[in-house]
Design a protein that fits this description.
The complex is a heterodimer of chains A (about 270) and B (about 300).
Chain A: H1 3-32, H2 37-40, H3 53-64, H4 66-97, H5 103-115, H6 119-132, H7 138-142, H8 149-160, H9 164-172, H10 177-188, H11 190-206, H12 209-214, H13 223-232, H14 238-258, H15 260-268
Helix pairs in contact in A: 1-14, 3-4, 3-14, 4-8, 4-11, 5-8, 8-11, 9-10, 11-15, 13-14
Chain B: H1 2-13, H2 31-56, E1 59-62, E2 65-68, H3 72-76, H4 81-112, H5 120-132, H6 135-145, H7 152-159, H8 171-199, H9 203-211, H10 216-227, H11 229-244, H12 248-253, H13 265-275, H14 279-305
Antiparallel strand pairs in B: 1-2
Classes of the chains: A mainly alpha (about 270), B mainly alpha (about 300).
Chain lengths: ~270, ~300
């Protein structure tokens, strides 16, 4: 065998090993969700789906309101995504296509928020929400992080490339500023908007530290917070946890498989430009 | 009246062709329709809390009242063994985990970019998958996989005769568990970014190097990697920032334990702020994290950014 063939076989072997490492936790999460907790830690561990899925599901539902929790997560993520994407797109458009006093300052603030970690804001934001009486409400979870710097920047870049002539001709046709935005400009940046929507949904769905601080009532928990609470219990329901983790990961995986291209574009952001 | 008469003349005096962009509207406030909501949100939920937290870091709670104490909270940090330990942990992650991960990602990206590779899209998908997992969910899965009694990893180690390891309750092994789980999640993500960078480098460079007699590995190390520097810089800066802000993983995996072996500054400030309700000290720690992020990013930028462009 020539060294070239050997090299390629080796490379494939490395790739395959990496792929197994990548996939095993997913596979095992799915398998474990269908077994009793006792089964999970027997020797050898189960590698094929078992028959306890419905038991685990009904236990999650009766003990942790899991249906409600998933609905909470979906609701919060959808509302956040719609509002945040819209606000980001609008602000990005204003920054890209209007000239006004303070534009440089606003752009500077946007860039600064991307660099300053949100942890600095945790304590004052927490006190602010407490003073407003908003703790344990969804507006406290959603509102503080609605203006998303990354989203604004992404949309600004997209709008900068949008031709002024199209906007101008719509204006000559008598369309107002808002109508131009919704009917002419926004459809023109659909790919970037798609990337933004996916990025925004994912980040809210996964969001942990802020909802953890805000939500206290079990019925209001989002999926990550419910999972975290289950770990803290004195008797940990491992198979329930695995089913819950699977449920937490599934929507994002579906979004990922369907919109792979936009997903990667959204996560990579401006990484590969120059 | 005079003012009214001069205005039209002024407007007419501007030649249409002279306007650089048709959308210049000096006196209009229409932009507020678009930038208004975000601006209000930034002022309320970014600018104000940022200023509040800076102020807070110079205050302390004394007998129920908030008093100004100057730099006392910052001085406290020098005598805080837990904070010191959290910084050492972070430094260990930065020095060991980040370079290993980026090295691995670079190798993966190089293989994924090979011209003879089949199913590139499929491989990329598989490697990117961990980055898609919900943070809390993957930490939960690692907790279960690494469980001391009967966890899958320990069964495997037992099976090949190495014997079980107390992954999450022994200081050293807990750190290793944290490294393993972070590496599992982020290596593929970085590899995909690096791959995108590699694909921007022309094929002819590989051919030229191969004509000059360079092997695949030499070509990669000597010709390709240097050109990839800006992308590597991006990966290492984002990984560094992520490491300095680490919270979700160690909070779920080990709660910072055992004995603060996996404590990180952000988890510590969370505990100081919300378990001990010591807001001033938490704010001061947060600002030190900000300064560290700025400083280390700057150093990396100087070091790796040198020579590019």
């Amino acid at each position: 065998m020539s060294p070239r063939i050997l090299g390629r076989a080796g490379a494939y072997l490395v790739l395959l090993a990496g792929a197994v490492v990548s996939l095993v936790p997913f596979y095992w999460m799915a398998v474990a969700a269908t077994h009793d907790t006792a089964d999970l830690f027997r020797s050898p561990p189960p590698f094929m789906p078992g028959g306890a899925l419905m038991d685990n599901l009904s236990r999650l539902q009766s003990e942790h309101h899991f249906g409600r929790v998933v609905a909470n997560s979906l609701g919060v993520a959808v509302v956040y995504t719609v509002l945040s994407s819209l606000i980001s797109a609008m602000c990005g458009y204003g920054l890209a296509k209007y000239r006004f006093r303070g534009r440089g300052v606003l752009l500077g603030v946007v860039l600064a928020t991307m660099m300053i970690p949100m942890q600095v804001l945790l304590v004052p934001l927490f006190q602010m929400m407490a003073n407003l009486g908003w703790t344990d409400t969804y507006q406290a979870v959603i509102l503080p992080f609605l203006a998303n710097a990354f989203g604004i920047f992404l949309m600004r870049q997209a709008f900068l490339a949008f031709p002024d002539e199209l906007i101008e001709s719509a204006r000559i046709d008598g369309a107002g500023d808002l109508r131009i935005f919704y009917q002419v400009v926004l459809p023109g940046v659909r790919p970037q908007l798609g990337a933004l929507v996916i990025f925004t949904f994912t980040s809210q769905w996964n969001s942990f530290i802020w909802p953890l601080l805000m939500l206290n009532t079990e019925e209001k928990f989002t999926v990550p917070i419910a999972l975290n609470q289950m770990i803290g219990l004195s008797h940990v329901d491992y198979s329930g946890l695995m089913l819950g983790s699977f449920a937490a990961t599934l929507p994002i995986m579906v979004v990922f498989f369907v919109f792979q291209r936009q997903f990667v574009a959204g996560l990579l952001g401006g990484a590969v430009k120059g | 009246m005079a003012a009214l008469q001069t205005e039209p003349a002024k407007l007419e005096s501007v030649p249409v062709a002279d306007a650089p962009r048709p959308r210049r509207r000096r006196f209009s406030l229409t932009h507020w329709w678009f930038t208004g909501p975000a601006t209000v949100l930034f002022v309320a939920f970014f600018a104000y809390p940022l200023a509040a937290s800076l102020y807070q870091s110079f205050t302390a709670d004394q007998d129920g009242a908030t008093v100004f104490v100057g730099l006392r909270q910052y001085r406290r940090m020098f005598q805080d063994p837990v904070l010191a330990e959290s910084l050492v942990n972070t430094a260990l992650l930065l020095v060991i985990q980040v370079p290993v991960m980026i090295g691995l990602a670079l190798v993966l990206a190089g293989v994924l970019n090979a011209s003879w590779l089949r199913f590139r899209g499929g491989w990329r998908l598989v490697y990117f998958l961990p980055a898609v997992t919900t943070l809390v969910a993957y930490s939960v899965v690692f907790r279960v996989l690494l469980k001391t009694d009967g966890g899958m990893v320990n069964q495997l180690l037992d099976g090949i005769g190495i014997g079980a390891v107390d992954w999450l309750n022994n200081a050293t092994w807990a750190r290793i568990s944290l490294v393993l789980s972070i590496t599992w999640r982020w290596t593929g993500y970085n590899a995909v970014i690096l791959l995108a960078g590699l694909q921007a480098i022309g094929r002819e460079q590989y051919e030229a190097a191969s004509i000059d007699g360079a092997g695949a590995v030499t070509t990669f190390v000597r010709v390709i990697v240097p050109q990839l520097r800006p992308v590597i810089l991006f990966c290492s800066i984002t990984s560094t920032i992520g490491t300095l802000q680490l919270f979700d993983e160690n909070y779920v995996l080990t709660r910072g334990g055992p004995d603060n072996a996996t404590m990180t500054p952000v988890l510590y400030l969370y505990k100081v702020g919300f378990d001990q309700m010591d807001f001033g000290y938490a704010a001061a720690i947060a600002w030190v994290v900000v300064l560290l992020i700025g400083l280390i990013s700057l150093i990396q930028f100087r070091f790796l950014g040198r020579g590019s462009r």
